[in-house]
Design goal:
mainly alpha, elongated
């Protein structure tokens, strides 16, 4: 009776079990990929689609308003005027950047949705004609 050699790490796995592990992880990667939503035809609500850009726009608008208030405080308050003059424009620029990024993100999502609808329509046409 022949005893298989031990592996260097001390585990006693056969070469067949190692092959099974690699093939199992490959199928797991395919199952958990992000493109899974392309294959499912479940419709998503508007909030599910647009919640990230709406949050970015809201946070950007809030930071922009805080920057406006801080900048205007530098005009009215005499003490700590240099701090207000430095922090105000920083908040203004950060808020404006987030606001613009969110506002640009929305048309990009709309365009992707239209392309996805067209591709699903073409896929259904292909399956209709080729599966006869």
């Amino acid at each position: 009776m022949e005893i298989p050699p031990k592996s260097p790490d001390g585990s006693e796995k056969s070469p067949q079990s190692k092959e099974l592990l690699t093939s199992n992880t490959a199928s797991t990667l395919c199952i958990s990929s992000r493109s899974e939503s392309v294959w499912t035809s479940a419709s998503r609500s508007k909030w599910d689609i647009y919640h990230k850009p709406v949050i970015v726009v809201s946070v950007g608008a809030a930071i922009f308003l805080v920057g406006t208030v801080i900048t205007s405080l530098s005009c009215f308050l005499i003490e700590n005027k240099n701090v207000y003059k430095m922090c105000g424009p920083a908040f203004l620029s950060l808020g404006l950047m987030l606001l613009v990024c969110g506002l640009v993100w929305i048309p990009i999502i709309r365009k992707k949705q239209k392309q996805r609808q067209k591709s699903q329509f073409l896929q259904s046409l292909k399956s209709f004609f080729f599966n006869r």
